Amino acid sequence: MSDNGQSALESALIGCFGGLFATFCVYPLDLAKSKVSAHIKRKDDKGPDVSSIEVLKKIMATKGAAGLYEGMGGRALQCFVEDFVFFWCVPRMYNTVNPTDTYTRSPHNIHPDLKR
């Protein structure tokens, strides 16, 4: 357990759900960016450029709000696993490398050698 009272498992779960929330918030923008990037304009194409707003409006018109999160399952699983491993391993690795000091994420608990 770290100085702030959280076990590695608690830190991992908190980090995972924070990452999932962030993914949920920005996924529609990422989806629109991907669709705009996939729209390749050829030299002879005289059609208008596609904007992210237009892509989001089209998705909402054709598939509704659920369309904004189409394909998010795989991204959410990836985010959950990455964040869990990161927030589980960092405190353990820090304590293995530096067993005399405990890992905390507080900016006030800076290692003495790193203070100015």
SSE arrangement:
Blueprint (H helix, E strand, L loop, with lengths): L7 H31 L13 H12 L8 H26 L19
Describe this structure in words.
By secondary structure, the chain is mainly α. The chain has one domain (8-39, 49-99). The protein has three helices and no strands. Helix 1 packs across helix 2 (52-63) and helix 1 (8-38) packs across helix 3 (72-97). The radius of gyration is 21 Å and the shape is elongated.
Please outline what is shown here.
The chain is mostly helical. It has helices at residues 8-38, 52-63, 72-97. Helix 1 (8-38) crosses helix 3 (72-97).
Tell me the helix content. Answer: 55-70%
* Helix and strand composition category: mainly alpha
- Specify the overall morphology: elongated
Q: What is the number of helical segments per DSSP (H or I, 4+ residues)?
A: 3
Q: CA-to-CA gap between the ends?
A: 28 Å
Q: Which sequence of SSEs, written as H and E, runs from N to C?
A: HHH
Into how many domains do the coordinates divide?
A: 1
Keywords:
single chain; 116 residues; mainly alpha
